[in-house]
Amino acid sequence: MEPSLIWTIAQAELREALRNKWLWLFAVGFAGLALALARAGLSAAGYAGLGGFGRTAASLINALLLFVPLIGLSVGASSLAADRERGTLLFLLAQPVSRGEIFVGKALGAALAVLTALALGFGLAGLGLGMSGGGETRIYLALAGYTLLLALATLGLGFIISSLTRKAAAASGAALIFWLALVFLADLGVLGAAITWRPNPAGLLGMLLINPLQIFKVGAIFSLRASLDSLGPVGQYALFRFGKQLPLLLTGLLALWALAAFAIAFAISNRRGEG
Predict the structure, then answer these.
(1) DSSP code per residue over 176-242
(2) pLDDT in tens, 128-164
(3) What torsion do the CA atoms of 70, 75, 80, 85 make, to the nearest 10 degrees?
(4) Own/partner pairs for 94-99, CB < 8 Å, 24+ apart?
(5) Lowest-pLDDT range, 35-39, 129-133, 175-179?
C-alpha cells in the first residue's frame, strides 16, 4: 500500500465527514452535556463536600454510552454508501489505486472525524474540571482511551452497514435502528436471557462482553477505581477471575471488536467489487 495515496483519500474523507451536519449536531450535543455535567458535579462538590471528579466521570459514562455509538455508526454508515450513490467509488477504482488503499484511507479519514468530534466534548469537560482545579489526569485519560476504542468499534460496525447498503439514506436509517438495538434492546435481551436461563456469573459475564457497550461500561467503571459491585455478582466475578488483568482484557476486547468490524466491512465491500 502507498501511504501517500491512503493519506490523500483520508483527507478527502475527513473533509467530507466534517461537512456532515449530523456529526456536528451529535458532537455539540455531547459537548454541551459534558460541560454541564462537569459544572454540575463541581457545584455539588463545593456545596456538599463531595468528590466532583468521580461524580462527573460517572455521569459522563452514561452520556458516552448514548452519544459515542451514535456518532460512530452515523459516520461509518454514510461513508461507503454515500460515495457509492454518487459514483465516487467507481471513479476511485478507475484510478491507479487499490481497493485496500481506498478502504484504509476512508476508514482513517472517518476515524479522524470521529476523534475530532469526541475531542470537542472531552475538551470542554476537561476545561470545566480544570477551571475548578478538579480532576485526575490519569483516570480521565483512561476514560478517553476506552471511549476512543468504543468509537472505533462502532465506526467499524457503521462501515459494515455502509458496505451492505446502496443508498446513503438507507444506511443512515439502518444505523439508527442498529443504535437503538445496541443501546436499549441489547440490555433488555441480556435481562430476558438471565431471567429465562438463569446462567451463572461466568455465563452472564460472557453474555455482557459480546456487546462492545458493556465492555466499555465495565472498563470505564474500573478505571474510576470504583467498585464493580454495582454490576452485582457479574462484576464481583470479573474482578475475582481477572483481577488486575481486567483492564488489559477489556482493552483487548474493544480493540478486537474494532479490527473485526473493519475486516468484515472490507471483506463485504471487496466481494462486491467496491472499496
Answers:
(1) HHHHHIIIIIHHHHHHHHHHHH---HHHHHHHHTTSHHHHHHHHHHHHTT--GGGGTHHHHHHHHHH
(2) 666 655 556 777 778 888 999 999 999 999 999 999 8
(3) 90
(4) 97/2, 97/5, 97/9, 98/1, 99/269, 99/270, 99/274, 99/275
(5) 129-133
d(CA 237, CA 187): 19
208 vs 69: CA distance, rounded Å: 17
The answer to whether 34 touches 59, Cβ cutoff 8 Å, is: no
- Tell me the three cell numbers of residue 36: 454541564
Could you give the residue ranges of the DSSP H alpha helices within the chain?
3-18, 21-48, 52-86, 88-93, 99-130, 137-164, 168-180, 186-197, 201-208, 212-223, 233-242, 246-271
| Domain residue extents for the chain | 3-271
**CA atoms of 175 and 90, how far apart (whole Å):** 24
Indicate the DSSP class of residue 262. H
**CB–CB of 180/222 below 8 Å?**
no
